[in-house]
Each structure stands twice: as structure tokens, then as C-alpha cells.
Amino acid sequence: MTKEKKIRIHSSTAKAVFKLDSETWVLKKRDEQRLEAAQMKFLRYLLGINKLGRERNQSVREKPRLRNTVLEIQQYQRQWLQHPQRMDISKIPKQTLNYKPKARRNIRRQKEKWRNRFHFEGY
Fold it and tell me: How far is it, in rounded angstroms, from Cα 85 to Cα 61?
């Protein structure tokens, strides 16, 4: 199988798995590092580059001209956020997105809210 076919398969399957349910993820630094590590592990295996070659990740990613998975997920989240914003206020997804609880958050809950990662009008 040629490298081009393998890259095409990666783009259609592996990236789809990475993006699965990513609309509402709060990506922490550790999550971003894990996603990048998984993508780089695949690309290095595909291109036959080992870590002893000391080739930078950016140059490995540029060879097959692939974008960073984390950046694609963030763009996907921004696009998804625009979908419920266009909905009528009577729709449940729009109401859920605009919901603000009156009580305080539990101690163990994550501090960062998903909607705070985006700076759109109306929030």
C-alpha cells in the first residue's frame, strides 16, 4: 500500500475517531499533548522516521501536508458552536447552551467551562 493511500485512510478514519464527540470536550494541555503524540506516532511509522533521526515534529507533519489534529478539533468546535447559535430560542440545544446554573460548582468539577473557551458575541 502506498503512503498516499495510508494518509488518505488516516484522514478518513483515525481523524474521525479523534473528532468523535469532540464538540463538547474541554481540551486541557495534557489532552492536546496526547492527541499530538498519537498523530506523530502514526506519521513517523508511516514515513519510516524513527526518533533517533532527531527530526522535528513540524517537519514530519509537513511531509505529507497534514494539519495538526488539535487545531482541527478546535476549529470543529467553533463550527459546531455556531450551529446551536443559529437555532430558535425554543429549541432545547439552544436553551442548554445558554443555561447558567444558580448554584456553585462542586469542588472536584473542572474549573474551566467549555463555553468559556470561545469568545463569541452573546456570552
Answer: 34
| 27-64 confidence digits (pLDDT tens) | 888 988 998 888 888 888 888 888 777 788 778 877 77
- C-alpha cell, 71: 487545531
The grid cell for 113 is 467551562
Angle, CA of 75, 11 and 34, to the nearest 5°: 65
Nearest to 17 by CA among 35, 41, 37, 40: 35
* Cα 64 from Cα 62, distance rounded (Å): 6
C-alpha 72/C-alpha 19 separation (Å) is 8
How many Å apart are CA 13 and CA 11, to the nearest integer?
6
DSSP string for residues in the chain: --HHHHHHHIIIIIHHHHHTTGGG----HHHHHHHHHHHHHHHHHHHT--GGG---HHHHHHTTT---HHHHHHHHHHHHHHHHHTS-TTSHHHHHHH---SSPPPTTS-SS-GGGG---TT-
